Amino acid sequence: MSGWVTVAGLGPGAEDLITPEVQAALAEATDIVGYIPYVARVPPREGLTLHASDNRVELDRALQALEMASEGRRVVIVSSGDPGVFAMASALFERLETAPEFAETDIRILPGITAMLAAAARAGAPLGHDFCAINLSDNLKPFELIERRLRHAARGDFAMAFYNPRSKSRPHQFARVLEILREECEAGRVILFARAVSTPEEKITVVPLSEARPEMADMRTVVLVGNASTRRVGRWVYTPRGTVSTTVSAGTA
């Protein structure tokens, strides 16, 4: 049987948020490749080999998967959330670009529910109008670029989703992010901290920008910032689909 590589998203944490398509790929796989905590989410079984590796070796991980597929193995590279959002799908193609001998490999990318969508659903509909996603980690890009993109997104009045907001190795950078937001946005702008969504440790905190603090975020948190129209209705947070009227007309979807 010919081998293949599938890059699959395991969703934000809960097993019932893994898509049937991804579950089927996991059931067919001979090998699972991925970051240690993500591989740990795949139950071991006879005929399945788990290849867990540390963070920051994404290109090595991708090459390993391509090599095994060339030997006829059925390989699933696992990511949390969606593999195309700051995850392994891009790393695989980056590695493939430098390894033309694997150009004919059978590759599939299977989507998953990413953290910003799971968090938004828990809160209501804070991403109901135009939005953007920004990875706040500076491991693969300079923090100056992050600052520039953040400032332009705020000036464009986008709702924003922040991944990897604050880690032990860079605890100060999220404080700078909040400073920029306060320079560009009003004090009452809605900001949502969603930690470990869909797991038993889930915690959702919604505050105005003026009350946001760096320590509210860590690496298990996705941060959602509303646009100027984002508001609360009861316990829910939502962003209107338009920029002016908040009245729902008869017959609108």
Output the number of helix runs: 7
Distance between the termini: 48 Å
Query: Quick one: how many beta strands?
Result: 13
User: Sheet bearing the most strands, described?
Assistant: 5 strands, parallel
Shape: elongated
Strand order across the largest sheet: 3-2-4-1-5
Overall pLDDT metric: 93
Topology diagram in text:
Layout: E1 4-9, H1 20-28, E2 31-35, H2 36-39, E3 49-53, H3 58-70, E4 74-79, H4 88-97, E5 107-110, H5 115-123, E6 124-125, E7 131-135, H6 143-155, E8 159-163, H7 173-184, E9 190-195, E10 203-208, E11 221-225, E12 231-233, E13 236-238
Parallel strand pairs: 1-4, 1-5, 2-3, 2-4, 6-13, 7-8
Antiparallel strand pairs: 8-11, 9-10, 9-11, 12-13
Helix pairs in contact: 3-4, 6-7
Folded structure, characterized:
With 253 residues, this protein is an alpha/beta fold. α3 (58-70) crosses α4. It has helices at residues 20-28, 36-39, 58-70, 88-97, 115-123, 143-155, 173-184; strands spanning 4-9, 31-35, 49-53, 74-79, 107-110, 124-125, 131-135, 159-163, 190-195, 203-208, 221-225, 231-233, 236-238.
